Fold these 2 entries.
Entry 1:
Amino acid sequence: MKHVFIIILVVFSLFEDQKSEANTQDLKVLNFDELQSYLGSKDESKTYVVNFWATWCAPCVKELPYFEQLNANYVNKSVEVILVSLDFPKQIDTKLKPFLKKHNLKSEVLVLDDVDSNTWIPKVNKNWSGAIPATLIYNKDKKEFYERSFDYQGLETQLKQFIK
Amino acid sequence: MKNTLKTFFALITIVALSSFTNVDEGQGYHIGDIATDFDLENIDGNKVSMKDYKDAKGFIIVFTCNTCPYAVAYEDRVEALNKKYADKGYPVIAIMPNNTDVKPGDNMDAMKARAKAKGFTFPYLMDEGQKIYPQYGATKTPHVYVLERTKKGHEVKYIGAIDDNYKDASAVTKTYVEDAVDALLVGKEVPEATTRAIGCSIKV
C-alpha cells in the first residue's frame, strides 16, 4: 500500500513538472498526431482560431498582430487563438524564441515539426496546397479553412459567423 | 471519466479536422490537363519556351524563388534533378512567380546572382506580369509540375512536392518527382500524382 502511495506521488510530481515547464515559455514541439490530440483535449465549448505561420513568412508576420488583437478582444467570448509555427526546428532557439520574446505574443504558440506534410496537410484541409499563411476556425458546430492572408476586419468577419 | 471525455473530444476534433471541404478546387491544372507554354525571360537575357526544346519528352517545371526558406532548402535537389533528367529528356525549367515589388530579393538581378552562386544548369525564368503561375495553379514555392509531351500537348502528370523531407535530403524516403519521371520514362503511370508540402505563398 505504501508503494502505491509513492507511485502516485511520483506520477503527480511528473505532471507538476510538465505543467511548470509549459508555464516557463518552453515551447511545445509536436508532430501532427500530437497536435491533433492536443487540440482535441481543449474545451469543446470554445471557438478556436488556429493560424499556421512561421517567422520567415512575411505575410504571416504581418497578420500576427490581427490574431493577437482578436485573441484579446474575444477572450471573454470563449474564443482562443492558437498560433502553430512551422519554423524549422533548428531555428527554434535562434529565430522563433527571440521573435516571441520581442513581440511578446499572448496567444498560445506551438511548433509543428512533422516532415510528412503530404500526409498531414490534407488532414487539416483536403484542398490546402500547403501555402502559408493558412487559418482554421472551428467550434463544435462549424469549421472553415482559409488559405489566405487576413486583415483584422476580415478575420473578425469570419469569426463572427461562429459566435453569433 | 475526464480521460474518456478527452479521448472523445480528440476523436471529434480528428473527424472535424479531416472533413473540411470549403475551398474551391477548380483553380489551375489538374492531372491530365494540357499545360500552357510560355515565353519568359531567362537569367541570361534570352526568352525560353518549352517549344524550344525539340528533343524533350517532357519537363520538370519548378515554381521557385530566392527568398523562401523552403525553396532554398530544395535548391541543390532541383539542380540534381536537372543533372539526372535533362539528358533523359526531362529538363528542369524553374520559374520565379513572385511580385518583385513585394519581394525585391527575387528580382532579376537577385535571380542572376543566386543562379551564379549555386551554379544552376537549368533556366531560371521570371514570370513577368505574373501571368503563368495562375494558369498552372501554383500557390507556393517550391511547387512542381511534371509535364509529358504528348500529341495533345504538354500533359500534366504530376503536381506537388519534390520529396517528403524538406529538412534533410539524406532522410528522404519518397522521391515524388523522381518517381514520377522514372515512371513516365518507362511508359508507366505515375505512382503518386499529387502530393502536398508546406511552402511560401506566392507574393502578388
Note: Confidence is low (pLDDT under 50) at residues 14-25 of chain B.
Entry 2:
Amino acid sequence: MKQLYLTATSDIAESLRARWFSVYSVVFGGIVVILFAFGLSESRVMGFTGLSRLLITYIQLSMALLPIFVLITTVRSVAGDREAGIFEYMLSLPVSLAAWFWGRFVGRFIVVFLPVFLAMLGALVWGVIKGSEIPWTLFVYYTGLLMALVWCFLGIGMLISTLARSSDVAQAAAFIVWLTLLLFLDLILLGILIQENLPPESAVAIALANPLQVFRTATMMLFDPQLVLLGPTAYIILDNFSQSGYIFYAVCYPVLFGSVCAGLGYLHFKRSDLP
Amino acid sequence: MIEFSGVVKKFRRVDALKDINLSIQRGQQVALVGSNGAGKTTLIRCLLGEYNCSGSVTIDGLNPREHRQQVLSQVGFVPQLPPPLRMPVGHLVTFAATLCGSDPACIHQVAEQLGFDAEHYRHQPFVKLSGGQKQKLLIAIALGRDSELLVMDEPAANLDPEARHTLFSLLAQKQKSAAMLISSHRLDEVAPLVNRVIEMDCGAIVLDDKVAELVELSSLLACNISMIRHEPAFASALSDWGFSAAGSTTEWTGMVAGPDRLRFLGMLSRYAGLLAGIEMNEVRESGKREDVA
C-alpha cells in the first residue's frame, strides 16, 4: 500500500510539472469561465436556467473533449516514459509491478479528474456567491458521470499504453479507438446501420456497449427524461432499465469497462518486457 | 552471487543474447565492454528482471523477475542516460530511499561527497539538473544504501575529476562486500575500476579475462606538468582536471585519481609536442610519495 501511495504521488508530481497538464487545466477551467462570460447561466433552454443550464452545457462539452484528452495524454506519458528510459530506471528500484501500475493509474486518475471537477466546483461556488439556486442532484450525478468517464478512458489508455511499444503507435491506436467509439454514436454510423435495417436489438446492444453512447444518453436523460430526442430507442431503454436504472448503469458500466481494460493492461504489463 | 545459465533473449527474429553462461561472485568488479548492439544493456535488463528471457538468471539463487522486491532491494543501478524525470530532487530521494528501506540522509551524504548538494536542489525538477548533477544524484541513490550488487552503465562519464576520485573511493569501500558490473563502450574508461573484463559482441561473450589489481581505487597522484610555452587550450584542459598554475603559466600542479591515470595520460598525449616535463608521484596515506612516471 505504501508503494502504491509512493507511485501515485510520484505520478502526480510528474504530471503537475508536465505541459499537458497546464493545457488540460486551462481548457477545462477556461470552458467554465467562457460559459459564465457568455452569460450562459442567464439564458434558458428547455426550461433550464442558471447553474443547471451551465452544468448541462459543461457536461456536454466535457463528454466531447475529455475522452480524447484522457486517451492521448495517458498513452503519450505512459508509452513516452517507457521510451525515454523512465521505466528502465524506476523499475530497477524494488517496487512491485502491481504497485507501480495501479499507483500510476490512481495518480493519473486524480490528476485528470481533479481539474474537471474543480472547474465544476468553481462554477458552483460562483453560483453560491451570486445567490443562485444550487442544483445539488445534478452536481452529484455529473460528478459521478465524470468520474466514470475518466476511469473508463483511463483504463482504455493504460491498456493501449501497455500493448503499444512506442508512443507514436500508442497515440495512433488511441485516436483510432476514440474515432471508432465516436462513429458508433447514434447520430453517425449507428443511425446509418438502423437505416440499413440492422435489427433493433443489435443497435441497442451496440449503443449500450459503447461507453461514449452510454454517457451521451445519460446526460441527455437529465434534461430530457423521456429521451424524446432519441426516438423509438427510448422505449427500449426506459422499458428495460427505467430512468434511475439507466443512470445507475451509466455510472457502473463505464467503471467496469475501464477496470477490465486496465486489468488486461496490467496482466500484459506484468508478463511482457518492462522497459 | 550472479548466475546466468543458458540465457537467450530474442527480439522478434534478432538474437540479442545467445546462450549466455556467466557467474559473478561477491568482491568481483566486472567490466562489461562491447560496441553498440553487443548486448550489454539487454544483459543488464535481464539481470534486473526487466526483460523476460529463456534460460535462468539468479541473484543469490533468486529470480529477479519473480522476487523483484527481495532482489532489487540489494541492487544499486546507475543508468547510462539519466531518465527525464520531472519530479523534484527531494521527492526522488524520498521515493528511492523509502522503496529501498534506506535513510535519505545517507543518499544526501554521498551526493555531498560527490559535490552535489541535494538539499539545496530539493525543489528543483530532476530533469532541470545538469548532466553531471544528475549522474551524481543517481550514483548517490545507488551507493547511499546497503547494496550488494552495483550495476552501473558508464558511471563516471559525466563527472568532473574530483567527483571521479570520490566515486572511485566510494567504490573502493564496497569492493569486498559487493559485486560490481560496470558497462562501457571503452575498456580504458573502466579498466582501473575492475578486476575482470567481459567483452560482448553480437549477443555473445567473446572474452572473459582477469585484470591484475595494481591500482588502488582510492589512490591519488600528485602531478607537476611543465610546458615548453603557454598554450591556452592545454591550460584549459589542465584546469578542467583541477590543475592550477604554479608560479608561471608554463608550470602546472594538481592531483589525479589513481584509477584515472590512463585517462590523464591520454589527455596529455594530445599535447605531447608542448610538454617539457611530467612528474607523477603516488600519494600514500602515510604521506610518503612514490615515483610512478
Note: Chain B touches chain A at residues 45, 48, 50-52, 68-73, 75, 77, 79, 81-88, 91, 95-96, 98-100, 125, 138, 151 (CB under 8 Å).
